[in-house]
Automatic annotation (TrEMBL):
Residues 5-134 form the Photolyase/cryptochrome alpha/beta domain. One of its GO terms (biological process) is response to light stimulus. Binds 1 FAD per subunit. Belongs to the DNA photolyase family. InterPro entries: Crypto/Photolyase_FAD-like_sf, Crypto/Photolyase_N_sf, Cryptochr/Photolyase_FAD-bd, Cryptochrome/DNA_photolyase_1, DNA_photolyase_1_CS_C, DNA_photolyase_N, Rossmann-like_a/b/a_fold. The keyword Transmembrane helix does not apply. The keyword Thylakoid does not apply. This is Deoxyribodipyrimidine photo-lyase. It comes from Flavobacterium hiemivividum. One of its GO terms (molecular function) is DNA binding. Transmembrane segments: none annotated. The record marks W287, W340, W363 as: Electron transfer via tryptophanyl radical. Gene3D superfamilies: 1.25.40.80, DNA Cyclobutane Dipyrimidine Photolyase, subunit A, domain 3, HUPs.
C-alpha cells in the first residue's frame, strides 16, 4: 500500500504557529506537514509528576491544537524515547523531510545529532534552523574568531551586527496553513502522559511596564516585570518579535535579552561550565556545603527577610524577582559557603523560566566563578539590599506573613560571614 508523502515539523522549544522559522520553511515544502511534539522520556523521567512546566507545555500544545483543528489539521503527540518514536514514524509514514529549530543545550544537541543520523540513514533529509536566538553559536566573535567571555564587548558587537541588519525579519506563516496535513489525531490528556495539574501556573506575559523598565526593575514590590522569560524559554513568543520591539522601546530591556544570548553562546562554546567552574582557579575553594544550612536556605528560614521572601516566592509560585535572585544566590555561595551547583540545581527544579544557560551563567556570576563574574570579594549585604529595594517592607510582608510578629534571628551574622567568605575564597584560589 502506497503511503502519502509528507514532511514533519518537530516542535520543541518553539510552541507557536506564528513567526516560527522552521515551521515557515516546512510549510513551504511541497509535501503536507504533520506537526509533531514528542514528550521525551529522557527528560520527563527526572521530573515530579506535577511539574508545572510540563503542564504549561501541555496547555500550550492544546491551544495550538485548537488552531490546527480550525483548519482541518491536528497535533501528533507522542511520548517515549525520542529515537524509538522516530523509528516508529519512519515505518508508518513516507517521510520526505523533517524540519526543526536548533536547540543549543548539550543534551538537545546530542539528541538532534542522533536523530539526524537516523533520518539520513533512512534517506530522509533533516532541515534545521536558527530560531530561539538572533545570533547563534559563533556569529558574534572577537576579531580572531574566538568567543567573547566578557559581556560588554559581546553586547557591543551584537548591537553593531543587529543595527547593520535593521529590524530582524519575522516569519509570517498564517497564509501557508493550508499546507498542514489534514488529520484528526487524538490529543492526550495531561494524565495520559503521566502527569497531573499543578496549582502553580505560568503567567501571561505583559509589556505594559517595559517602557519604564530601568526605573522599576530593581524593586520586587512593584509588579513591573514582563513575565516574559518562561514564554521565551518554551517559545510561545518569538524572540525576533521581542528584540525588534525592545530595540524601539527600551535599551535596558534589550540588554537583558542580549544577556540571554551571551550565556547561550558561553554554554555552547564552553559546555564544561555546566558542571564546573568557568574559572578553574576557583577549584581550590573549600566549601562548607552544610546540608542543614542548605535546607534553611531552600525553605526560606535563614532569618534574612529578603532572602527568605525570595525563596518562599520561588517555592510558592515558580517565580523570583531578578534583584532578589542575586541576593539569595550571593547569600548561599558567600554567607553559607555552599557550592553554586547546589543552588543552580534547586532553581532548575523550581523556576518556571528555567533556562540552562542563563541559570548556570547567573549562578556562576553570583559565586564569582564564572565568566565576567562579580569579584569574589563582592558580598551582598541582605539587610542593605532590603533597605534599598524594599524600604517599606511591602515585598517581604507579602511572602513572610509572620514578619511583624517578631522575625527570627539571622542564621549567620553578616560581617562574620563576609570575612569568612573572603578569607575562604582568597585561600582557595589557585595561583
Amino acid at each position: 500500500m502506497n503511503k502519502i508523502a509528507v514532511s514533519f515539523f518537530w516542535f520543541r522549544r518553539d510552541l507557536r504557529l506564528e513567526d516560527n522559522i522552521g515551521l515557515f520553511y516546512a510549510l513551504e515544502s511541497k509535501y503536507p506537514v504533520i506537526p509533531l511534539f514528542v514528550f521525551d522520556d529522557s527528560i520527563l523521567d527526572s521530573l515530579p509528576k506535577n511539574d508545572a512546566r510540563v503542564g504549561f507545555i501541555h496547555e500550550s500544545l492544546a491551544g495550538i491544537n485548537q488552531e490546527l483543528k480550525a483548519i482541518g489539521s491536528s497535533f501528533l503527540i507522542k511520548k517515549g524515547a525520542t529515537a524509538a518514536v522516530w523509528n516508529s514514524l519512519i515505518q508508518e509514514y513516507n517521510i520526505q523531510g523533517v524540519f526543526f529549530n536548533k536547540d543549543y543545550e548539550p543534551y538537545a544537541m546530542k539528541r538532534d545529532q542522533e536523530i539526524c543520523e537516523l533520518l539520513v540513514n533512512e534517506n530522509i533529509v533533516p532541515f534545521s534552523y536558527k530560531d530561539q536566538v538572533i545570533f547563534e553559536e559563533k556569529e558574534i566573535t572577537k576579531a580572531d574568531g574566538l568567543p567573547y567571555t566578557i559581556y560588554t564587548p559581546f553586547k557591543n558587537k551584537w548591537l553593531e551586527k543587529y543595527n547593520s541588519v535593521g529590524t530582524v525579519r519575522e516569519y509570517l506563516t498564517a497564509d501557508k496553513f493550508s499546507s498542514f496535513y489534514k488529520s484528526a489525531f487524538a490529543f492526550p490528556s495531561l494524565n495520559e502522559i503521566g502527569f497531573v495539574e499543578n496549582s502553580i501556573k505560568v503567567k501571561p506575559y505583559t509589556l505594559d511596564s517595559i517602557s519604564k523598565y530601568q526605573e522599576i526593575r530593581d524593586f520586587p514590590a512593584v509588579d513591573g516585570t514582563s513575565y516574559l522569560s518562561p514564554h521565551l524559554r518554551f517559545g510561545t513568543i518569538s524572540v525576533r518579535k521581542m528584540v525588534n520591539w525592545a530595540a524601539k522601546t527600551n535599551a535596558v530591556f534589550l540588554s537583558e535579552l542580549i544577556w540571554r544570548e551571551f550565556f547561550m553562546q558561553i554554554l555552547f562554546n564552553f559546555p564544561r561550565e555546566l558542571t564546573h567552574n568557568f574559572k578553574s582557579a576557583y577549584d581550590g575553594i573549600k566549601w562548607r556545603n552544610n546540608e542543614e544550612d542548605f535546607k534553611r536556605w531552600c525553605s526560606g528560614t535563614t532569618g534574612y527577610p529578603m532572602v527568605d521572601a525570595g525563596m518562599r516566592q520561588l517555592n510558592e509560585t515558580g517565580y523570583m524577582h531578578n534583584r532578589v535572585r542575586m541576593v539569595v544566590a550571593s547569600f548561599l555561595c558567600k554567607h553559607l559557603l555552599i557550592q553554586w551547583q547546589w543552588g543552580e540545581a534547586y532553581f532548575a527544579e523550581k523556576l518556571l523560566d528555567y533556562e540552562m544557560a542563563s541559570n548556570v551563567g547567573n549562578w556562576q556570576w553570583a559565586a564569582g566563578t564564572g565568566c565576567d563574574a562579580a569579584p569574589y570579594f563582592r558580598v551582598f549585604n541582605p539587610e542593605i539590599q532590603l533597605k534599598k529595594f524594599d524600604e517599606k517592607g511591602i515585598y517581604i510582608r507579602k511572602w513572610i506573613p509572620e514578619f511583624n510578629l517578631g522575625y527570627g534571628q539571622p542564621m549567620v551574622e553578616h560581617a562574620f560571614a563576609r570575612d569568612r567568605a573572603i578569607a575562604t575564597y582568597k585561600a582557595g584560589i589557585l595561583k
